Amino acid sequence: MKKWIPLLLIAIVLFQLDADAQCAMCKAVAESDLEGGGTTAKGLNDGILYLMAFPYLLIGTVGYFFYRHKKGLGS
Fold it and tell me: CA torsion 4→66→72→74, rounded to 10°?
């Protein structure tokens, strides 16, 4: 299992996809809406925070259960 981890990390680094094309468009829409008194920019920011929180929660949960399993506290 340990020999696959470096290969997996190399594959992740080498096979990245560019996904930054939408950033300029989202920024322009949010700025124009904010100037017009809309709430799209606030909703966009809330959505980004929502999406950003879940990977940390998932990693924390997996780490917690891994810790419990290694210490023998699991069921």
Answer: -130
Contact 44, 23 (CB under 8 A): no
DSSP classification of residue 18: -
Report if pTM > 0.70. Answer: no
In angstroms, the CA 48 to CA 53 distance is 9
Write the DSSP string, 34-61: HHTT-SHHHHHHHHHHHHHHHHHHHHHH
Would you state the structure tokens that stand for residue 41, as one six-digit string? 């920019």
- Over residues 37-73, the pLDDT tens digits come to 888 778 888 888 888 899 999 999 999 999 988 887 7
What are the structural domain ranges in the chain?
4-71
